[in-house]
Write a structure and sequence with these properties.
InterPro entries: DSRM_RDM1 (IPR057652), Rad52_Rad59_Rad22_sf (IPR042525), RBD_domain_sf (IPR035979), RDM1 (IPR040224), RDM1_RRM (IPR034200), RRM_dom (IPR000504). With 280 residues, the protein is an alpha+beta fold. It contains five helices and ten strands, in the order E-E-H-E-E-H-E-H-E-E-E-H-E-E-H. The strands form three sheets. A four-stranded antiparallel sheet has the order 3-4-2-5, covered by helices on one side. A three-stranded antiparallel sheet has the order 1-9-10, with no helix packed on it.
């Protein structure tokens, strides 16, 4: 039995050995049909981060090509070997290759997944009942001394900022970790209380979602060849306080002030690595 381990991270996959390039897709079917057909084929090998179907360049023959990005290098490799030179859903065999070159934009650290994609990945490997999150605290930190920059007294805008701490628990694996998230936005001081109340609700949700993402980012899923999953968790001892002390406490000075996490599907605008060797 093959027990080779595959490591899955809760990060946007950037490695070229996780991306498939598919071409020789004919114009027999619509782009939507091609997308659905490819999704059905390749999602059977494992969860997909993204799939894109694009028309060929105007200088090429009419048709389409596709890019498929897996979270797992092993699953991408198996999908390539299995589907290359197969017809799948059309009369002409497809060409399928692993990407072999990276664009400079991929040389930096990988980006965070969206909250929705973290949930999808966790549900796939851990099961819908295999994990849970608990909000420890949500705080208005707009006036916190360590909250970063503040608006001047003459400004017509008011800074609203919320922080959240959540606990992520994987009961079947005996793993618990925490995540911290912060969201901020400015509102016109002249706006009524209804708009400020609506914005505060949005910021609390954004902060909670970012905290959940931060907790998932601490996990490494170790997937064995027999399908079993082990979990490792990296803990920053300086960041997390004991549960009995963390209530009502958010260490604002340790938080990176980034915009709210992207909603599900926004990762599709990330640059794609479409350079690869076409040799057989």
């Amino acid at each position: 039995m093959d027990l080779e381990a595959d490591i899955i991270e809760f990060r946007v996959p950037t490695e070229n050995n996780k991306t498939l390039f598919i071409w020789d897709i004919q114009t027999t079917f619509t782009e939507a049909y091609i997308y659905e057909s490819l999704w059905c084929v390749y999602s059977a090998f494992g969860p997909l981060y993204l799939l894109k179907v694009c028309p060929n360049a105007s200088v090429a023959a009419p048709g389409f090509y596709a890019l498929v990005k897996f979270y797992s290098a092993a699953q991408a490799s198996k999908a390539q070997r299995t589907t290359d030179k197969q017809r799948l859903f059309q009369e002409v065999p497809l060409k399928v290759r692993l990407s072999t070159k990276q664009n400079p934009s991929f040389l930096s650290a990988s980006q965070s997944l969206s909250h929705a994609k973290c949930q999808d990945l966790a549900n796939h490997y851990l099961g819908y009942n295999g994990w849970s999150t608990h909000i420890i605290t949500v705080k208005d930190v707009s006036q916190c001394a360590d909250a970063g920059w503040s608006l001047g007294g003459d400004s017509q805008e008011e800074l609203l900022k919320y922080g959240c701490v959540v606990k992520l628990t994987l009961p079947q694996h005996g793993v618990t970790c925490h995540g911290v998230g912060v969201a901020e936005e400015t509102v016109d001081r002249d706006k009524g209380p209804e708009e400020k109340l609506w914005m505060r609700g949005k910021l609390m949700k954004w902060a909670k979602d970012k905290a959940v993402v931060a907790a998932f980012e601490k996990l490494l899923l170790i997937v064995l060849g027999n399908g079993k999953v082990a979990v490792e968790c990296s803990i920053d001892r300086e960041e997390i306080l004991p549960d009995e002390d963390v209530e009502g406490v958010i260490r604002i000075n340790d938080i990176t002030w980034s915009a709210p996490a992207a909603a599900a599907g926004e990762e599709e605008d990330l640059p794609w690595n479409s350079s690869m060797e076409l040799s057989h």
